[in-house]
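With this grant's support, we have settled on a layout for protein records. A representative record follows, to show the layout.
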Amino acid sequence: MITLRPAEARGHANHGWLDTYHSFSFADYYDLDHMGFRSLRVINEDRVAPRMGFGTHPHRDMEIITYVLGGQVEHKDSMGTHDVIRPGEVQRMSAGTGVLHSETNRFDQELHLLQIWILPERRGLEPSYEQKAFSEKERQGQFRVVASPDGREGSVTVHQDVTLHSALLGKGEKAEYTLTPGRHAWVQLARGSATLNGVALKAGDGAAVSNESTLVLTANEPVEALLFDLA
């Protein structure tokens, strides 16, 4: 079963410097029917104006993944981390017992990113940070692991039974994924248009998947997609 979450049905707020869409309930957007999917709690698609950003703020007991689609984001945190995240790079921050951080677009180009929150396997983890790059070649034509519980294939390590894949597809190209019985998936189309087992998806759409054994994503035009394999 595939349940579509259309892009236009998401929560939306435009703060001038920040134009944001929420796949699940977040901040002032509250919808009991869309509180998350399995351990996936937040997918926010954010566009941040040049020289603007999120000032220092706290998090705890959450696995936070930043996935940049365009521009660059500068990250600073109370663990002493100071990094810049670019397209093709995946950042994972485990907030655990508590961390302060800021995310700023201090550059001249608009920042376009996905902010992803995943509930951790347990509360009270030690805060930690990780960032890795994945080339277009690695992700072209296939679902490439970019985050996993065991850090396999050079992915970042997420403290939950979730595996995140990234795929880049050219027009007419297909990527296939086998879902283990009892597992679920969420597919987020970051750009382009495609079909997922025949279900039409456009940029910003999400799809909740249960009771499916094989997923086939077929691109109608160049596509960037994320696939979460969830318990």
Observations:
- The first helix runs from residue 136 to 139.
- The chain has one helix and 22 strands.
